[in-house]
């Protein structure tokens, strides 16, 4: 079984390089390419890829708006929608946050190592989120106020520990090992945290932790 991927970027040379990388992997398949947001929306509906690599900076319909439209179309058809990884050259807070709010499963800098890009595609396909530490560290941090501990008062001490580990980018197996818990227990804690904080995804949880300066 191969992961069906749609590649969206306005630079043909970049697309060609990524396509060659994808086609070198037996479990990954590039089913289509788009050079702008409008093409991305059309091809997402036609090809139904499982993962989309979405450039955020494109002329016309940019990656943020294309992400929103693709997810809206999927919801209207009763489908879960593809997993979208936002690709960015610059650390643009608003664009990255907007993409995640509109349904992206995470983001990568275009300078990411090829091995990390491939691992990220496989991770989001399995339902995980991808947050690049060096990019994320620059988000939400124009100033460095004290952590907002009141925002997590509803969480238990263990849930606070899990939240911080999730926010640093660890997956459930790593969190389980670090806290000497089972993966099932970690999943239960994550569900409880999301419910108490009125969040829906791990990406939103990471965003919340940075906005509240809990990792300061």
Short description:
The longest helix has 14 residues, at about 65-75.
Tell me, briefly, the overall form: globular
Span from first to last CA?
Answer: 42 Å
What structural category characterises the helix and strand content? Answer: alpha/beta
Largest sheet features: 6 strands, parallel
Strand order of the largest sheet: 2-1-3-4-5-6
* H/E element order: EHEHEHEHEHEHHHHH
Runs in which pLDDT lies below 50 for 5 or more consecutive residues are 133-144
Mean pLDDT: 85
Number of helices: 10
Radius of gyration: 18 Å
| Strand composition percent | 5-15%
Helical amount among residues, as a percent range? 40-55%
The beta-strand count equals: 6
Structure description:
Residues 148-213 form the HTH luxR-type domain. GO terms for molecular function: DNA binding. It holds the Pfam family Response_reg. This protein is an alpha/beta fold and 216 residues long. It is built from ten helices and six strands, in the order E-H-E-H-E-H-E-H-E-H-E-H-H-H-H-H. It has helices at residues 12-23, 37-47, 63-76, 93-101, 114-125, 133-136, 157-167, 172-179, 183-196, 202-211; strands spanning 3-8, 28-34, 51-55, 83-88, 106-109, 130-131. The chain has a six-stranded parallel sheet with strand order 2-1-3-4-5-6, sandwiched between helices. The protein is globular. The termini are far apart. The model is unreliable at 133-144 (pLDDT under 50).
């Amino acid at each position: 079984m191969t992961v069906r991927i749609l590649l969206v970027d306005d630079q043909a040379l970049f697309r060609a390089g990524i396509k060659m990388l994808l086609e070198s992997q037996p479990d990954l398949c590039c089913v289509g390419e788009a050079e702008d947001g409008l093409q991305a929306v059309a091809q997402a509906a036609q090809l139904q890829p499982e993962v989309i690599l979405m450039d955020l900076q494109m002329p016309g319909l940019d990656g943020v708006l294309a992400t929103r439209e693709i997810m809206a179309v999927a919801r209207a058809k009763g489908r879960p929608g593809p997993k979208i990884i936002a690709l960015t050259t610059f650390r643009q807070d608003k664009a990255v946050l907007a993409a995640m709010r509109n349904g992206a499963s995470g983001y990568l800098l275009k300078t990411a190592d090829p091995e990390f890009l491939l691992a990220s595609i496989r991770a989001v396909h399995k339902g995980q989120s991808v947050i690049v530490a060096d990019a994320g560290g620059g988000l939400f941090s124009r100033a460095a106020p004290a952590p907002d501990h009141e925002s997590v008062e509803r969480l238990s001490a263990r849930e606070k520990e899990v939240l911080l580990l999730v926010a640093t980018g660890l997956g459930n197996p790593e969190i389980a090992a670090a806290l000497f818990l089972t993966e099932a227990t970690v999943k239960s804690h994550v569900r409880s945290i999301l419910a108490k904080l009125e969040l829906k995804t791990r990406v939103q949880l990471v965003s919340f932790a940075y906005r509240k300066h809990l990792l300061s």
